[in-house]
Amino acid sequence: MAVTQVRVQTDDFDIGALSEQVRANDATSGAIVTFTGIVRELVAADQSLEALFLEHYPGMTEKALNHIADQARARWALGNIVISHRVGTLSLNENIVFVGVGSAHRASAFEAAQFIMDYLKKAAPFWKKEISSKGEVWVEQKQSDLDAAKRW
């Protein structure tokens, strides 16, 4: 039976171990798609990103992530789903989010993983602050993230 695992944590995660959890006890999935988001440098020339600070609403966040996974299951025949998202202060090149999806076929796995990320960016209660050489700024939700979720 396919399972959904959702975690919100301060500690880093092991991408290999999470990938194995997507595969675990699921011989029906012929495709596993994973996505890992990491902290990257800002593109702006006039400042340099030092870290991100992510906050969430405990309990509500996990519920929202499970709801997003349920919506993906309603659209595609999926195996295991693993979503792990970090909070707290994260430095450059640190992991932020992992989404892993199993499915019998690659197209469904790719689409479901992208759907989960698009809806996570739109609907999960996370707040992000950029800590840069110019100070600290809470980041507004991007229109491009809202537009990406509209296509589903």
UniProtKB/TrEMBL annotation:
Pfam families, A to Z: MoaE
Catalysed transformations (reactions): 2 [molybdopterin-synthase sulfur-carrier protein]-C-terminal-Gly-aminoethanethioate + cyclic pyranopterin phosphate + H2O = molybdopterin + 2 [molybdopterin-synthase sulfur-carrier protein]-C-terminal Gly-Gly + 2 H(+)
Matching InterPro entries: MoaE_sf (IPR036563), Mopterin_biosynth_MoaE (IPR003448)
Main enzyme class: transferase
GO molecular function, one term: molybdopterin synthase activity
Pathway(s) the chain acts in: Cofactor biosynthesis; molybdopterin biosynthesis
Keywords assigned by UniProt, alphabetized: Molybdenum cofactor biosynthesis, Transferase
Quaternary structure note: Heterotetramer of 2 MoaD subunits and 2 MoaE subunits. Also stable as homodimer. The enzyme changes between these two forms during catalysis.
UniProt xrefs under PANTHER family: MOLYBDOPTERIN SYNTHASE RELATED
Protein name in UniProt: Molybdopterin synthase catalytic subunit
